[in-house]
Amino acid sequence: MLHSLQALASRAVIERAILLANHVIAGEPVAAQRLAAHAGRCLVLEPQGWPALLPPVPPLGVRITPAGLLEWCGDELPGAPELRVTVDASNPALALVRALGGEKPRIEVAGDAQFATDVNWLFDNLRWDLEDDLARLIGDAPARELSKFGGSVAAALREAVRGIGSLASRLRGGRDGTGGPTPR
Q: What are phi and psi for residue 147, nearest 5 degrees?
């Protein structure tokens, strides 16, 4: 029963993630144009090194539609996808912290070079314009203020992550930052 609940939750999360990705892609006509050139092609995103203690995360297969959007392939992965992207998922918590700090995860790409170039362009250039979406719901001024607040919180989180990362690297090096051994 727990497995079936997990499967239902996974489907719901994947479906919502695809909807969000399509919303972001549709908001940037150049992105949709770049993807439309690859209509019918498939991409498989695979987590690599996922911790055994956590529930398994299956590979995610998506097909590019003629409109330049993403369509989830469901549980059946394409046999020979045109592009395979492997993401280092050996430490999901660290990956999340690094993402908050603005770092991209370590990935490996195999497949069609032009398709890989266009997908990489999406990762480098697409951003969700949350302020614009909020403005449609609550108006421009409140959306702007919420966006400023969110930006401040995100900046504080990035700074905290950098500080923690710096401290961790100093501790790994056995130094306290003054050149001497770490006090015990």
A: -65, -40
